[in-house]
Structure formats: structure tokens, C-alpha cells
Here is the input.
Amino acid sequence: MRCPFCGHSDTSVKDSRTADDHSSIRRRRFCGECGSKFTTFERIQLRDLVVIKKSGSRVPFDRDKLAQSITTALHKRRIDPERIERVISSIVRQLETSGDGEVTTQAIGQMAMQALINLDAVAYVRFASVYHEFSNVGNFIEFIKKMEETAV
Here is the structure.
């Protein structure tokens, strides 16, 4: 593993343990060249996924992009980071075990929205505003009214 600080290609593992979500291994590493310490995570990847975008183009699935979208929706919400990581891992696992190597952005968005509605209503609305491309306040109001109707 290359050191993120000096670029040295030979770092050593000082400690390994299962991460809290039990779906990854957390490794503490040390760079003998510059003395820096850093953490890496190792996850199981069941298959390579291809995302079909709205334009029809195909790109490799990027877990970090999904994580960034969910983290942005949860910005300044009091949700435990480990819980957020479990949600992201759960979505990725569902995608990898779905039986198809290709998935649409719409399917990923629906999975993220389903996870967020169970996690935090405000984050759900934030994510929906981008996912559904709300263009004005009326879109927000209409969406929230529908959300409240289905919650009753």
C-alpha cells in the first residue's frame, strides 16, 4: 500500500481488526520512510458493477460517489457515522447480489431514498430534491405533502 503522505510504496500493517459493521477490515498502517500512520479499509467486492446513466452511457460503479451523496444529504444531521456506513454497505451489498452486473442510476437512487427515509426524514427530502431535480419551492411542498400522506 502506497503512503498517502510521501508516496513510498512499502508500508507495513501495524494492526488489523474487523470494522464495526463486520463487512470490512480496518488496518492501521505505518510508513517506514516518513513515519506517517494512516488507516485503510478492505471490503469484499462480489462483482464489478456497471451503472447505466440517464444519458445511456455506462460507467463503473463508484461506492465513494454513493457514500458522498448520502453523506451530503445527512450533513449536520445527528446520525452516527457507523450507522451511515452500514446503510451504504447494505445498498452496495444489495446491488452486488441483485443478479445483474448492470444497474441504472434510477435503481441506485431508489435504494438510497428507501434507506434515507428509514434513517432521517430531512436527509430523505434533501436527497430527493437532487434526485428528482426540484426546480422550485413548490416541488418541495408537493413532495413533502405526498410524504406526509403516505406516513399517515
Notes: The first strand starts at residue 11 and ends at 18. The mean pLDDT is 89. The chain has two domains: 1-44, 46-151.
